Structure prediction request, 238 residues.
Amino acid sequence: MKQEENSEAAKVRLGKEHKPNSYMYQEVGEKIVQRTNWALRRQKELPNNRRLFVLTCMDERVPIEQALGLEVGDAHVYRNAGGVVTDDVIRSAALSCNFFGSHEIIVVTHTECGMMSHFFHSGANMIMNYLEFHLGQKIDPGTIPLDPSLPELQLTGDVNRSFVKWIRMFRDTDAACLAQVQMLQDHPLIRKDVPVNGYVYEVESGALRLPYQRISDKVDTAQEMFAKGVWTNQPTTR
Ligand SMILES: [Zn+2]
Prediction:
């Protein structure tokens, strides 16, 4: 009887003394919690690690995770042709920021983007002709299902002109970047306390820069080196 009591007491003592002090037990427990939180992020309403939504181009030369220093799990990343705001970008950004905990939006366009091709300067007819040539048939932009799951979403008015706008080619990647930032900032489905910032990724240098702040433009001539504005942010020597 005495031995049984001792044995029960030992079990209790072991339970109390050994489990909390076992590092392996803690480690396994933490891993299980981490894995559970990872697998059930949306159910537990946990945001991505950086609470970030990123919009960028589908171009294969833009390593967006590397450029922004992102790891798996850090951000919601949306890529399309040009990295431009479309109805589905609005849908995704609004869901990310309002339902999934993102608190910040970054837009990244890039140099030598295919969306700045010569078609932009060729007009609506040229683009339509080129498309029809590749499709091997005539197309009517007024009846094209832009979103097959939402057939009521159709172009109206001057449908050829609207269709070309829908393709969203642009002339200048810096201007395009700022325009997308503005559209997201102004959109009623994006909260005003969500900061939206834009950068241009240079495929030629592999670096991000602010729009219209190409460093290589400021290093070639004395005029550029001493142009007003270059030195304004330099620390003063006292
Ligand atoms: Zn592109």
Summary: Strands lie at 52-57, 75-80, 104-110, 196-202, 207-209. The chain has two domains: 1-46, 53-117+169-225.
